[in-house]
Specification:
With 182 residues, the protein is an alpha+beta fold. The chain has helices at residues 24-30, 68-77, 99-110; strands at 8-14, 34-36, 39-46, 49-56, 61-66, 81-83, 96-97, 116-118, 128-134, 143-147, 156-161, 165-170, 176-178. The strands form 4 sheets. Strands 1, 2, 5, 6 and 7 form a 5-stranded antiparallel sheet that branches. The longest helix is centred in the middle third of the chain and has 12 residues, at 99-110. The chain is globular.
């Protein structure tokens, strides 16, 4: 028997058009769900006035922390909302992200003033730099690899949600401790 009462981070799809007035993540938040979707600031012109607004980095990607039963009810009521399933896995089990991975990612994004996002296919093996540990600052205790881009003087730590999205967050060189010399 499946444990449907456990709270997990479910990976969801929002099939609404990019310019819809109300997105699924907004509807879910209004219903009291904890929702995270990576956002960016853009400048739009509406009726001749330039306005800054936040929009999702990936229009159809959102993460919802909930037990499955209440989320099933929301999915039934929001026609454009769907669970995501991993290719090659059972179609009956929606994709979930471990709490620790999700919390690490959210913390990194929220503590960075200049986050760069990459899709899995955009990260090439040569972009993975030296392995580091962050000692101090907002990313204290984080380990991972630096983003290696030719000509960049900024040190960025790659924080991944494998298979979905990677955030490159700026780390002060003062807090970097090298683990290996790859």
């Amino acid at each position: 028997m499946k444990d449907i009462g456990t709270v997990k981070w479910f990976v969801m799809r929002d099939l609404k058009r990019r310019h819809a007035l109300r997105r699924a993540y907004q509807e879910l938040m209004e219903r009291g769900f904890e929702v995270f979707t990576p956002m960016r600031w853009t400048v739009k012109v509406k009726r001749g006035v330039r306005m800054r607004q936040e929009e999702p980095i990936i229009a159809d990607l959102l993460f919802v922390r909930s037990a499955k039963d209440p989320l099933d009810r929301a999915v039934a009521n929001i026609s454009t909302l769907q669970y995501r399933y991993r290719l090659g896995h059972s179609a009956s089990e929606p994709t979930v992200v471990r709490d620790t991975d999700m919390e690490r990612f959210i913390n990194a994004v929220r503590n960075s003033h200049d986050t760069r996002y990459y899709l899995p296919e955009e990260i090439k093996s040569e972009m993975y730099g030296k392995e580091i540990r962050v000692v101090g600052g907002p990313f204290d205790g984080y380990t991972g690899r630096l983003l290696s881009l030719r000509g960049s003087k900024t040190k960025r730590l790659l924080v991944e949600l494998p298979g979905f999205i990677t955030a490159a967050v700026e780390v002060s060189p003062d807090y970097i401790q090298f683990i290996s010399e790859n």
